[in-house]
């Protein structure tokens, strides 16, 4: 497996994904050979999976706002790639979506990331992405996001889900400090 098409087919044929493939659901991620920005998050939402377009939901609207990019730039700049920890909607849990499946990112991230050698900035959206890519992070998501500058070329962020409105209200430093720094880095790479 060395090409994007070979990896895509291998993901679809993986026995762990048989139920999705049988239901006609394709893995949802986005490779860009020229990508300078990679977005890593938990998994597609139910809305994004139904639309067959990554970040096509309220969380995506907010993420684009945070990044300071238009929908056109986000989807068509050729500079932004999306590789979540799981490429399928995991289902509904008690307080939001279920976590991504264990072992999925370990199996598929390395071959996909090899196809995008120009990455300079990786946004880690939410706790699961931060746990996977930042084993030496702070004790809490809030502290990790506060110390975002310590993790370059990774940029840890809280998830832009509507479920996190309370967190955003309690942490005004995020909009005042983190988002301007994020937008500066995004603009420099676009």
List the defining traits of the structure above:
10 helices, 190 residues, alpha/beta, single chain, Uracil-DNA Glycosylase, subunit E
What does this structure look like?
By secondary structure, the protein is α/β, with parallel strands linked by helices. It has one domain (28-189): Uracil-DNA glycosylase-like domain (Uracil-DNA Glycosylase, subunit E, 3-Layer(aba) Sandwich), CATH 3.40.470.10. The chain is built from 10 helices and 6 strands; from the N terminus they run ααβαααβββαβααβαα. The chain has a 4-stranded parallel β-sheet with strand order 2-1-5-6. A two-stranded antiparallel sheet has the order 3-4. β3 and β4 form a beta hairpin. The model has no long low-confidence stretch (mean pLDDT 94).
Tell me the name of the CATH class. Answer: Alpha Beta
Radius of gyration: 16 Å
Coarse structural class: alpha/beta
In the CATH scheme, what's the topology name? Answer: Uracil-DNA Glycosylase, subunit E
How would you state the average pLDDT, rounded?
A: 94
The number of E-state strands comes to 6
State the end-to-end distance: 30 Å
> Which percent bin holds the helix content?
40-55%
Helices and strands in order:
Layout: H1 4-13, H2 18-22, E1 37-40, H3 46-51, H4 58-67, H5 71-76, E2 80-82, E3 92-93, E4 96-97, H6 104-113, E5 121-125, H7 127-133, H8 141-146, E6 154-157, H9 165-170, H10 173-189
Parallel strand pairs: 1-2, 1-5, 5-6
Antiparallel strand pairs: 3-4
Q: Would you kindly provide a brief summary of this structure?
A:
The protein has ten helices and six strands, in the order H-H-E-H-H-H-E-E-E-H-E-H-H-E-H-H. The chain is α/β, with parallel strands linked by helices and 190 residues long. The chain has one domain (28-189): Uracil-DNA Glycosylase, subunit E (3-Layer(aba) Sandwich), CATH 3.40.470.
């Amino acid at each position: 497996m060395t090409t994007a098409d070979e990896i895509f087919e291998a993901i679809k044929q993986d026995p762990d994904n048989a139920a999705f493939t049988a239901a006609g659901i394709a893995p949802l991620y986005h490779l860009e050979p020229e990508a300078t920005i990679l977005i890593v998050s938990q998994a597609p939402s139910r809305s994004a999976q139904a639309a067959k377009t990554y970040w096509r939901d309220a969380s995506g609207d907010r993420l684009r706002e945070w990044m300071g990019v238009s929908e056109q730039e986000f989807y068509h700049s050729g500079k932004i790639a999306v590789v979540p920890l799981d490429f399928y909607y995991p289902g509904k849990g008690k307080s939001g979506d279920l976590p991504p499946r264990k072992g999925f990112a370990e199996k598929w991230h390395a071959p996909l990331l090899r196809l995008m050698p120009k990455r300079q900035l990786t946004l880690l959206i939410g706790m699961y992405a931060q746990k996977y890519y930042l084993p030496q992070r702070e004790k809490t998501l809030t502290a990790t996001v506060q110390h975002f500058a310590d993790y370059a070329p990774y940029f840890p962020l809280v998830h832009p889900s509507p479920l996190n409105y309370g967190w955003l209200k309690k942490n005004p430093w995020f909009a005042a400090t983190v988002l301007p720094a994020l937008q500066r880095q995004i603009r420099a790479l676009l």
